[in-house]
Every structure is written in structure tokens, then in C-alpha cells.
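Researcher: Predict the fold of Nitrate ABC transporter, ATPase subunits C and D.
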Amino acid sequence: MSTYLEIFKLTKVYSTPKGPATIVKDFDLRIKKGEFISLIGHSGCGKSTVLSMVAGLNDITSGGIILAGKELTGPGPDRGIVFQSPCLLPWLTAFENVMLGVDQVFYTANKDERRQIAEYYLSVVGLADAMHKKPAQLSQGMRQRVGIARAFALSPRMLLLDEPFGMLDSLTRMELQQVLIELWRKDKKTAMMVTHDVDEALFLSDRIVMMTNGPEAEVGDILEVTFPRPRERKAVLEHPDYYRLREHLITFLEEHAHKGQRPVRHSSLPVIKHNSSSDQPLSTGPNNQKADRISEAAVIKN
Ligand SMILES: Nc1ncnc2c1ncn2[C@@H]1O[C@H](COP(=O)(O)OP(=O)(O)OP(=O)(O)O)[C@@H](O)[C@H]1O
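Model: C-alpha cells for Nitrate ABC transporter, ATPase subunits C and D follow.
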């Protein structure tokens, strides 16, 4: 299949009080139409920086991004974004929040058609009975469902997700991963997701892009995830390749935890087993204590 999104030599230099900081340098990636890609890497390496440049919300210093043959120069409705928090207008209902975008994108459709689009996606994410409630009347997980419905309802070419489940408890997180994977399967959207969660990346992705640590972060490695689709969590966890792939990711992350940082007390590293399907999700971010234990024991930050 041909390339749908091409990121070439993408570089971002931020101005800081200490001078220019090159956070991402020469980041190259090609994504096929309908592919689900996750970006994983240590906190602060530049994952959100890359995603926000693809979203058109962050200026590119050099390099470029081409989506469906067109160079991206700013934000647009061809990219649907799901953030960690969905940023809903509090005085509007879930339905009205989704309709805001639908009215703009499908302005040629009649009102009834537009209403049907919003209702369809809100129902698919499990909010059929709650779509006329305001954000304050919804749980955090329900609000995130609205955010997912809104992104899909706009029928974007590409879906960009920045730690979409990072604020949720693990049960809600798993439920919403399931909602996302089902919607993605139905709509076949090309997707790029930033995550700290190794298990989430393995469950959802076709490929996992591992970023090196910044400054000057780039693509360090890419893991193909070939579990059959449609995916069901239990089958994925029991797949004979699951722990080999998980180990590959963790080894990359552990190796990069040491790079540019001062290793200490290697002899006191905790022994962490990855061979049980009852393991909690392992993440590289602040939401997972196990990952924190790895990085705390392995490195001290300069
Ligand atoms: N506007 C900005 N100005 C200066 N530095 C910035 C700016 N935005 C981000 N940075 C820096 O760029 C680096 C990468 O940030 P970014 O948020 O992209 O990382 P990340 O990998 O997504 O982190 P996390 O996983 O913790 O969300 C960090 O050191 C951050 O402090």
C-alpha cells in the first residue's frame, strides 16, 4: 500500500531562556492509509511535539509533512484530534458539542443528516442515553467518549490521539481502548497515537514507533505488531508473540533511559517479570508505578 502520511526530516527547535533547543531532529516516518501507529518514548522526548506538528498546531522548524499528497501548513478538518482531556464547551450538551464541528464540516448536508451523524457516533461510543447531558453531568470517561465521537464524526483523513486515555483509571481505559479499536475498525482511519503505555500500544497498533530521547530525538526503532484483527484483548495477551514484542519495547525504553543520563546502583535494579498475562499495563509515563520503578531504579535525571 502506498504512503498516506509522509513525515520527512521533521525538526523542531524551541526558543528557551537558555537559547534554542532542538527537541526533534530529522524525524522520518511513512504511514500507510488505514494504518494505526503509536509513538512511544520517554517523557519529554518530543512525542507530543511531533503529533502537534502533524496536527498543524505547532510550527515546523524544518522538514515537512505530506498527507494524502498535500503538504500540511496548518490545522484543518482533515485531521481529527483527541487530547488527554476533550475540551468540551461546558454550556453545551455532548450532542451539541459534537454538532459544533459536524455543522462546520458537513455544511452542505441538511440538518437532519448532520444530526444523524452526531447521534450515530455518540451512540457507537456508548452515549446513546447520555448525549443530551452537559459535560459537568458526565464522568471523565464519558467526556472522553464525547471527544472520541467528535473526532470520528468529522470524518477526518487522519486521527491524531495524544495520550487519549492518560487521565483514566485502568478499567475505563481498557473500555475506551475497545471503543476506539472498534470505531477504527469500522471507519479504517489512519491513526497516530502518542502513548506511554506499552500494552495499550501493543493492543491497538499496527506499528509502534520508538523515539530516542531528546534533545534531537528521532525514530529509534519501529516494531511491527502483527496480531490478527479484529483484536480481542484476551487473544492478544495470549498470543505467543506478545511477550517477545513487549520485551522488545521495554528493552528499547530501558536502554534509552540510560542514554544521556547517569546510571546508578545497577546492582539494585528491581527484577521485573514480564511473563504473566495478569501484569498491569506497563507505561513509560507518570501514570504507571511499575514503569516509574524501572526508571527510578535505573537512572537519576541530570
Ligand atoms: N513551547 C515550548 N517551548 C519550549 N520547550 C518546549 C515547548 N513545548 C515543549 N517543550 C519541550 O520539548 C520537550 C518535548 O516535549 P513534548 O511535550 O513534546 O514531550 P513528550 O515526549 O510528549 O512528553 P510527555 O511524554 O511527558 O508528554 C520537553 O523538554 C519540553 O519541555
